[in-house]
Structure formats: structure tokens, C-alpha cells
Design goal:
With about 425 residues, this protein is an alpha/beta fold. The protein is about 25% helix and about 25% strand. The structure holds zinc ion (ZN) (2 copies). One zinc ion binds near residues 135, 137, 286, 289 and 309.
Length: about 425
């Protein structure tokens, strides 16, 4: 990044280093006694005081994996960071676009001949500057195709192209732990080349092709824009766009991955910058599902870190990235649910690989507080809650070993950063 571009971002050095911005929550959260704050979604939804903040985090989807948990209506993982009039989206799991509409598509009505009619031509996504994808798992991507279809209609990419930033093609399959012998799907790369592990750019191109009939019809029948001219996809790890930092070593393609290789100790590196935010990334430990990134967003009003999907031991990576963050949104899994679901499962059983994924690639309620404490985060927000119907009584145990404020995330919860406007 050129020095003059760096100077455009007026982020105090103390914020970049320590995240010194103040955090503020909706009135209901503020009124709760003690250092922990627990609240249901109905208490903290749009219209809350967080709307008066210049910078705010909006939780769009707060479960990990599927959304079908009885008693839970959490959408899959997704967040929006709003800075002034601009918006940035992190992940787009199942249900995220519906939550985007619920959070930001404020209806406009007109009265004609005494009848109240809603104006439908909404462009509520016109101020989305960028979408960031932590990794290419379905509970972070399920609504990406929907977003491309709805978002083109809802105004993104005009007049400035929407930036889409996510992992590149990792170039090799993960180890076959299940003994799978079915078809290995391959994606076209253009020409004779194919890949089993398409990155963000190729995935996007292929989605546009898959929905070509819809996009062509919409362009010629309903005035949709030319999608290829309003998005700009960049891949993390592509030397032409966002190269790896020099101290990163690619896993050895001739051997199965080890955890040290999929999450080596490294330094955070910048992946995006504009006049409002600076975004940096680091690898976290989602083990086989590599690469998996955590992202840090520094603004003039404070700092936000999204852990992405990770086990608790990131070789110190998350601690480096999230040091002193005002808000750390961290994934969490309920160990009691794992124990009950996989009771008696042994290595070699059909359910073993999924059990092994659950215990190695995610962070338990018992561990997440310690991680947040090591990060010196001021506030820990639990999200990507697995399963979605984990009771509050168990999630509250995350406060153990964490001296800051704990918030149990709910869909449409808003958390303001910095000072509130009067
Ligand atoms: Zn996930
Ligand atoms: Zn994942």
C-alpha cells in the first residue's frame, strides 16, 4: 500500500495497536447489572440505540453449520460492519440475505387515493463496499449465490464495483478420512484445466454461468446490471492481488497436511483498505479446511475481529491479530452436545471423522473465554454457535477465564463502536 493511500485512513495509532475505541450496546444491554450481558434477540434488534453510532456491528446469522436446530431460528454465519453510510459484509451463510433485508431494507410507503402502498424498488445494498469470506464452507457461503442475485437488484456495485475478497484455490484435496470412493467433483478453469478446489474467483465465475439464464433474462427484461462489470473478485494468496506474507510456507503437496502447516505461526497481513477501514487477515486453525482466515477491521471508532472457524490453538495467530480488540466475535461449539451426539464413537467408526472435525476444528465454550482473555479483547461476542439451540445457561459458561464483557450473539443484534451520536 502506497504511503499516500495509508495517510488517507485517519486511524489513530493507538487504535491500530490496541483498539482503544469505546464500545456501546443497546440500552437493554447497558442496563444489565454485572460485567456479563446476556440478552435475547427480541431485546436488541433494529431500532436499538446502536443505530445512533457511526460504526456498528450487526450480527446477521449466529449459528454454525445447519440452521435446522429445533427451537432456534438462527441463520448461519454472517455479519455486517456499518461505518457511516457504508457497509462491509463478512460471510454469507444460509439465511444471511433475508437477515440483510430485515436489518437494512426499511420500507418506504406512499399514500395514493387514501391507500398506503409500499414502494418496492429498494436499493438497500447500494452502499456495500466489500464482502469478505473467511473460508469456503457452506455455512459461510450458502447465501452467496442468493446475494449475487438479490444484491444486483438491490443496488450493490454501482457506481463503484463491489469488492469480493476470499480464499484462493488451495490446489489440493484434503486427506480422505472417511474412505470416500465416490466422484471427486472438478470445476472448469477454462481450457483443459480443471480443479477440485476452486477459489473465490472461479467459484463466482461458475455461479454466474450456472445462473446464466436468470441473469440474462433479468438484464434484458428487468434492467439488472451486468454483474461482471459491477463486482471485482480478489483472492487472498494470489500474488497479483493479495499475496501471502513472506514468512508463510505453503503445505508440502506430497504429504498429508499437519496442523502446523495449515495454521503456521505468522504475522497479520493487510488485505483491504479504503478511506474508512483497514482490514487485515491471519490463518486460524480449521485444520483440514484450509485456508481459514480471521479478519480484523480497524476503524476510527474502534476495532472488530471476526475469528472465522477455528480451534482454540492458532499458534498465537488469533492473539496477534485480535490484540486489544474492542470487539472479538468468536465461534463456539458446545462440548456437551458433542459428547452426547458422538457417545461411544471410536476411531474407525463411520461417525469418527465428523466427531474429529467437531473436536479439532472448533472452539468449545470452556476454551473460548481463555482465548479472548489471551487476546485482551474488551468484549467477546459468541457467534457461530453450534448447535444453534445451545441453551444460554451453557453459553454463559464462556465467561469463565474471561475478564471482559461477554455477549451471547443473536441474529439482528447491533453493537455500536465508538461514541454514540446525540
Ligand atoms: Zn462454520
Ligand atoms: Zn468451517
Amino acid at each position: 500500500m502506497a504511503q499516500n493511500e495509508s495517510d488517507k485512513l485517519h486511524i489513530p495509532r493507538r487504535t491500530l495497536l490496541k483498539g482503544a475505541g469505546a464500545l456501546a450496546l443497546s440500552p437493554l444491554l447497558m442496563s444489565l447489572e454485572g460485567k456479563s450481558s446476556f440478552a435475547a434477540a427480541s431485546n436488541i434488534k433494529k431500532g436499538s440505540r446502536a443505530q445512533k453510532f457511526n460504526t456498528k456491528l450487526v450480527l446477521l446469522g449466529t449459528t454454525g453449520g445447519m440452521t435446522w436446530w429445533p427451537g432456534s431460528n438462527r441463520a448461519s454465519s454472517s455479519q455486517a460492519l456499518v461505518v457511516g453510510d457504508s457497509m462491509y459484509i463478512i460471510d454469507l451463510g444460509f439465511g444471511a440475505t433475508q437477515r440483510l433485508a430485515e436489518a437494512f431494507n426499511h420500507a418506504k410507503f406512499v399514500t395514493i387515493n387514501g391507500e398506503k402502498l409500499q414502494l418496492e424498488l429498494s436499493t438497500f445494498l447500494k452502499n456495500v463496499r466489500a464482502v469478505f469470506l473467511t473460508h469456503l464452507h457452506m455455512d459461510h457461503l450458502g447465501d452467496y449465490p442468493t446475494f449475487l442475485m438479490i444484491g444486483a437488484r438491490a443496488g450493490f456495485g454501482i457506481p463503484n464495483r463491489l469488492q469480493i475478497i476470499g480464499p484462493g484455490d488451495r490446489g489440493r484435496l484434503e486427506e480422505n478420512k472417511t474412505g470416500y470412493s465416490g466422484t471427486i467433483l472438478k470445476a472448469e478453469c477454462g481450457g483443459p484445466k480443471q480443479t477440485t478446489t476452486p477459489g473465490t474467483k472461479q467459484m463466482t465465475n461458475l455461479l454466474l454461468q450456472a445462473f446464466a439464464q436468470n441473469f440474462n433474462d433479468c438484464a434484458m427484461d428487468a434492467g439488472y446490471p451486468d454483474l461482471q462489470n459491477i463486482i471485482d473478485v480478489k483472492e487472498i494468496g494470489d500474488p497479483r492481488t493479495i499475496p501471502w506474507p513472506v514468512d508463510f510456507i505453503l503445505p508440502n503437496p506430497s504429504k498429508p497436511w499437519t496442523r502446523n502447516e495449515t495454521c503456521p505461526a505468522m504475522v497479520p497481513f493487510e488485505i483491504y483498505r479504503d478511506d474508512l477501514i483497514r482490514v487485515s487477515a491471519i490463518l486460524v486453525d480449521h485444520y483440514q479446511v484450509y485456508p481459514s482466515f480471521a479478519f480484523r477491521f480497524d476503524t476510527n471508532d474502534g476495532s472488530l475481529v471476526i475469528s472465522g472457524d477455528t480451534g482454540p490453538d492458532t499458534k498465537g495467530n488469533l492473539q496477534k491479530l485480535a490484540k486489544g480488540a474492542d470487539v472479538l466475535v468468536h465461534e463456539v461449539i458446545d462440548n456437551a452436545w458433542i459428547t452426547a451426539t458422538f457417545k461411544g464413537v471410536k476411531e474407525g467408526d463411520p461417525a469418527w471423522p465428523l466427531y474429529y472435525h467437531a473436536i479439532t476444528a472448533h472452539t468449545t465454550i470452556e476454551d473460548v473465554g481463555r482465548v479472548a482473555e489471551q487476546c485482551q479483547a474488551k468484549t467477546l461476542v459468541l457467534s457461530h454457535i453450534g448447535p444453534g439451540n445451545t441453551p444460554l445457561s451453557r453459553l454463559k459458561k464462556a465467561q469463565k477465564n474471561f475478564s471482559g464483557k461477554l455477549i451471547i450473539g443473536e441474529d439482528l443484534m447491533e453493537i455500536g463502536l465508538g461514541r454514540a451520536h446525540r
